[in-house]
Design brief:
Blueprint (H helix, E strand, L loop, with lengths): L2 H4 L1 H9 L20 E12 L2 E4 H4 L2 E6 L4 E8 L8 E4 L2 E6 L2 E6 L9 E8 L2 E10 L2 E9 L2
Antiparallel strand pairs: 1-2, 1-3, 1-10, 3-4, 4-5, 4-6, 6-7, 7-8, 8-9, 9-10
Length: 148
């Protein structure tokens, strides 16, 4: 099974997953300054009807910066797959933390704004934000890592 054919579900996710919350403002929870910083996709795997695809190996990228004031900046690139063109998304928006969970609110219509991320400290200064959710029959596992 080709990598390109198995990337088709991620392109569909970008559209389908955006059908969730349309909130445009930050939640009432507070942001932790200890989570501020730049996060890069460290692991990004999709599993669906076409099999399992490592999106990073396929060429997709995601960088998001969590600012101390609750805003986000960054960029997501979805690699072309199965006849679907590559897609680019601005990760500008807001983030909130409630306990050990981070939630993003963004104008970009992607799965990121519809997925909750668990905070997992790895080592001094190293933090992972881990999301794992199914959208339209495709499981998306995404780990965003902030290094020291």
């Amino acid at each position: 099974m080709s990598v390109m054919r198995s990337l088709a579900p991620i392109a569909m996710l970008v559209t389908a997953a955006g059908c969730g919350s349309d909130s445009t403002g930050p939640q009432s929870q507070s942001q932790s300054p200890s989570l501020s910083g730049s996060y890069t996709a460290f692991e990004w795997v999709t599993t669906g009807g076409s099999g399992q695809t490592n999106q990073l190996i396929a060429g997709s990228t995601l960088l998001i910066t969590l600012n101390g004031n609750g805003t986000t900046t960054g960029h997501m690139h979805i690699a072309a797959s199965n006849g679907n063109p590559a897609a680019e998304f601005d990760m500008a928006g807001t983030w909130t933390q409630s306990g050990n969970t981070v939630d993003f609110t963004q104008a970009a219509d992607t799965f990121v704004r519809d997925m909750l991320f668990d905070v997992q400290p790895i080592a001094t200064g190293v933090v992972d934000l881990i999301g794992d959710q199914v959208f339209s029959g495709t499981q998306v596992k995404l780990t965003l890592r902030r290094g020291a």
